[in-house]
Amino acid sequence: MLISLICLTQAVPLFLSEIAPAHLRGGLNILFQLNVTIGILVAELVNYGALKVKPWGWRISLSLAGVPGVILTLGSFLLVETPNSLVERGYIEEAKSVLRRIRGTDNIHAEFEDLVEASNTAKQVKHPFRNLIKRRNLPQLVITCCLQFFQQFTGINAIMFYAPVIFKTLGFGNDASLYSSVITGGVNVLSTLVSVYSVDKIGRKMLLLEACVQMFISQVAIAILLAHGFKDGQTTLPTSSAIPVVVLICVFVSAFAWSWGPLGWLIASEIFPLETRSAGQSVTVCVNMVFTFVIAQAFLSMLCSFEYGIFLFFASWVVIMGLFTIFFIPETKGIPIEEMEMVWRQHWFWKKIVPDDMPGHGATNEKALELKNVKVAPGEVA
């Protein structure tokens, strides 16, 4: 099951980014994260119901986990190959046919030429993983690794994994703690819908920055409430403090769900060139899994040691995330995936890293970016 999850996490964002038109790529890609959040919510509801079936309710919960696997297996037979993949393997006419079908028009010449050019460049690369550490790919590698690291150090998985424990500590009973974790799952789904709607309108960078402010405020407020509520050696919070803490946790979850949650996968899947795209996504998944494991193993011990300070610990990382976003993450909204190279040459910092002979920086691509009215944040353009 874990291997299947890793494969899907690597393949699905890439697949969606490659077939989506540039102006809808963000929203379509985040549908992946939306379905993940729906799955989490459904799992919480199933677990809540199975808890009432004794003594074998856990068998119901475990066996129903196979249903999504069956749906995914059957659905995979209905998928088409991406034009990028077909061109790279030499199926030129089939690639044209698929591109016409998914774009709904015969006017695909310019986009198809970009795919062919990217494929020709990709064929010259014999060792994609070795190529990842070359200067040309360092911006993408650094950003994707940092996004996955920061995604976990927001504290989201710690909260989602241990929501029942947290809510029980806040004074809720066993059933109420599970019910409260279902509430966070519902907030997760609704907030991801916000991201689907807004990511291609206001851009990736604005969502990341807004979420940093919202997560920082909510985590600091939670720490203050917990410090005040447990100051006299109490083992549970009074209702006057517990309810605001639950609300603030939902505020935190909503901020993550429309920003660092889906955008960590979206940005990683759209910024690598074709020749290192699969290798880059593999590294992205690996980094995510490593730090998911680290946080999952460390959180309970940190909670016992830091107590309310655990939220200040994660809040400090949110500040670092915000600064990293301001200075090092460029806006990629509306830029065709095969023309992403120009983003690095226009960025105030990354243009010092990428080589001057980097492919795809001629007048054609400059004009393409102008025609798409790409807006680059102040301070990012030379």
Automatic annotation (TrEMBL):
* Keywords from the UniProt entry: Membrane, Sugar transport, Symport, Transmembrane, Transmembrane helix, Transport
Task: Mention one GO molecular function.
Answer: symporter activity
Name its cellular compartments: Membrane
A UniProt-annotated Pfam family: Sugar_tr
Q: Which InterPro entries match?
A: MFS_dom, MFS_STP/MST-like_plant, MFS_sugar_transport-like, MFS_trans_sf, STP/PLT_plant, Sugar/inositol_transpt, Sugar_transporter_CS
Record field: transmembrane? 27-48, 60-80, 178-199, 206-230, 242-267, 279-302, 308-329
- Ranges for domain Major facilitator superfamily (MFS) profile come to 1-333
Q: Which Gene3D superfamilies is this protein grouped with?
A: MFS general substrate transporter like domains
How does the record say this protein sits in the membrane?
Multi-pass membrane protein
Protein biosynthesis as UniProt keyword = no
The superkingdom listed in its UniProt entry is Eukaryota
May I have one GO cellular component term?
Answer: membrane
Q: Which family does it belong to?
A: Belongs to the major facilitator superfamily. Sugar transporter (TC 2.A.1.1) family.
Entry-linked PANTHER family: IP12678P, SOLUTE CARRIER FAMILY 2, FACILITATED GLUCOSE TRANSPORTER
Name the chain's protein. Major facilitator superfamily (MFS) profile domain-containing protein
Species of origin reads Ceratopteris richardii
